[in-house]
Design brief:
Blueprint: E1 7-10, E2 14-17, E3 20-26, E4 35-40, E5 46-52, E6 55-56, E7 59-60, H1 72-87, E8 95-98, E9 116-117, H2 118-124, H3 126-129, H4 133-141, H5 150-160, H6 165-172, E10 175-176, H7 178-186, E11 190-193, H8 197-202, E12 209-210, H9 217-224, E13 231-234, H10 240-248, E14 255-259, H11 262-268, E15 278-279, H12 281-288, E16 294-297, H13 301-306, E17 307-309, E18 313-314, H14 317-323, E19 333-336, H15 341-352, E20 358-361, H16 364-370, E21 376-378
Parallel strand pairs: 5-8, 10-14, 11-12, 11-13, 13-14, 15-20, 16-18, 16-19, 19-20
Antiparallel strand pairs: 1-2, 2-3, 3-4, 4-5, 6-7, 8-9, 17-21
Length: about 375
């Protein structure tokens, strides 16, 4: 959509940007205050719809993230009304710009495309195909993953107002010498390594949790790290401030500093490092023939229901923390996800819990599919 600088008029329901009129549509369902913004051209024809968390590509906003008196079924019923009374009758050619894409926890299974149309969603979005209210509510409220804990914490912070940027940095952006860093670890701080998974795999500090800045960093930090844990960081050069601020945006303000010089400092002093081998599907297959390996799929159950690697066990990453203590530490594990980001997080968690033989399938199942390997098993 073109950029317009002149704000000519504004009221609660409509405002004008140049010759484009923007109409505010109140669309409760994901939350009570959810809204969409409908753009109309000079002829008052609807052209673009900015749907926020109401309508995604192939999905709709989940109704279970509101902390309050309303249950998910009641919110899902509101969402049904919002979609059918305010969105459904828009022309098929209206372009839709959702607020999130694939990987966001605000939906169950959001598609990878970032732009769609009303017509495309009528044809492909399963939620929009449910014209019966009760069937829609059942569809939208079933199979929901556990909400990331930071959602509710962040909502409370938004209500009272967050700390200022400068204040957060003054409290958390602190260089730690090797001695000071090791003391923080001894004091019980969680070690978060925010480097790219491929860098992490090649060498990391024992016990580190890898959540790379190059992926859904805030989502997984908020899902896997308890709010009351103090944190110290290892980052790529120049990644310290971003690592801290993206944590602060979801309510994590207990960062106690970062290792000055990062892994170079740790290695130069002769400290112990560990590694997680990235292996091809062919090497994984050879190892699996030995029979005692556990092939672990850490994607969601929805992803695994479409296709998976034969003989794999699905344990979604968001559930791994609760199940990790029950895993057999004497067995070696081969881990995969879609592309390698989540699986490296899982590998770091397994190693931190004392499982010594852990391998990551390079490129995840997406690469295995591209190679048309026979181990890929599709839903019938």
């Amino acid at each position: 959509m073109p950029h317009y600088e002149a704000l000519v008029a504004f009221d609660r329901e409509r405002f004008r940007l140049g010759h484009i009129t923007m109409e505010v549509l109140h669309t409760p369902g994901h939350t009570i205050e959810s809204a969409c913004f409908l753009a109309r051209n000079a002829e008052n024809e609807p052209t673009d719809l900015f749907t926020g968390d109401t309508l995604f590509v192939g999905d709709v906003g989940r109704p279970d993230l509101l902390s309050g008196n309303l249950g998910k079924e009641e919110l899902a019923s509101m969402l049904y009304d919002s979609l059918h009374q305010k969105i459904w009758d828009l022309p098929d050619k209206v372009i839709v710009y959702p607020g999130h894409g694939a990987g966001s926890a605000c939906g169950k299974n959001i598609g990878k495309e970032t732009v769609t149309t009303i017509g495309e969603q009528k044809q492909t979005n399963d939620a929009l195909k449910e014209h019966d209210r009760e069937a829609f509510v059942r569809a939208v409220t079933s199979g929901l993953p556990v909400p990331p804990p930071y959602f509710f914490k962040a909502a409370a912070i938004n209500m009272r107002g967050p700390s200022g940027y400068d204040h957060v940095l003054s409290e958390t952006l602190k260089q730690l010498s090797l001695l000071g860093f090791k003391q923080k670890l001894n004091d019980g701080c969680l070690l978060l390594d925010t480097r790219d998974p491929s860098e992490f795999a090649g060498g990391f500090i024992p016990g580190a949790l890898n959540i790379g800045l190059n992926g859904d960093y805030a989502v997984w930090a908020g899902t896997l790290i308890p709010f009351d844990r103090e944190i110290v960081l290892v980052t790529a050069e120049g990644g310290e401030e971003e690592s801290i601020m993206r944590l602060a945006r979801i309510g994590y303000d207990r960062v106690r500093g970062f290792l000055s010089g990062g892994m170079e400092t740790w290695i130069s002093e002769g400290e112990k490092i560990e590694a997680i081998p990235d292996i091809s599907i062919h090497e994984a297959e050879n190892r699996m023939m030995e029979g005692h390996y556990v092939l672990l799929d850490v994607r969601t159950k929805q992803e695994a229901s479409d296709y998976k690697l034969k003989n794999s066990t699905c344990l979604p990453l968001q559930e791994l923390s609760g199940a990790i203590h029950s895993l057999d530490k004497s067995r070696p594990y081969i881990v995969y996800c879609a592309g390698g980001y989540r699986s490296m997080i899982a590998c770091s968690m397994l190693r931190a819990q004392g499982i010594r033989e852990v391998f990551n399938i390079a490129g995840g199942i997406n690469r295995v599919k591209a190679e048309q390997h026979a181990l890929v098993e599709y839903a019938s």
